[in-house]
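Action item from last week, closing it out:
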Amino acid sequence: MPTRRTTAKQLRHDAAEIAHLRPHTGHVSNADESAHRSSNNQLSYIANFTKGVEHDPSRFDEVKPGRYRQFLRALAASTPEAFESLDVSPVPSTDRRNFVNPQAGLAFDLQGPDPDALALVPAPRLDSAEMAAEMAELYWMALLRDVNFIDFGTGSFRLSAPGPVHTSPPITVAKPLSSVNLAPR
């Protein structure tokens, strides 16, 4: 009869084999990284995560392409040493901070599926209608953040799109709260 220790080891091996046999779906890019170019036809990386990577104030604070490519090489290397070697500070500094979060994808989790086996739908492209709709929604949320919830049903406020945008109709909230059926279903 096997000992508990031996049985526990076999269960772990069996679970590892099940996890190993799970299909790993590929990760799909939205292609923004290679889609946007600067005026001199160089990749601009304007639609990509560039927090912590040096930016160029003379180019409307766009990321410096060389620094971003260095960041991509660290991602491809998939080692902590590659991230530690990144030059993230525009000037020498004693309070230099290393990248940490991009390395989360290098971790292994012993519970559940391997994170690399889980894929997300690609983010909407910067130049897509979906992204424009999401931005419009975020702006409306910002406009409405200071409206009291109780005022939503009173029609006591009227908002229209800010600035020169004339294509979106004004929104009037006019349904009185008393006309909303709040009875349980």
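Closing note: Confidence is low (pLDDT under 50) at residues 170-185.
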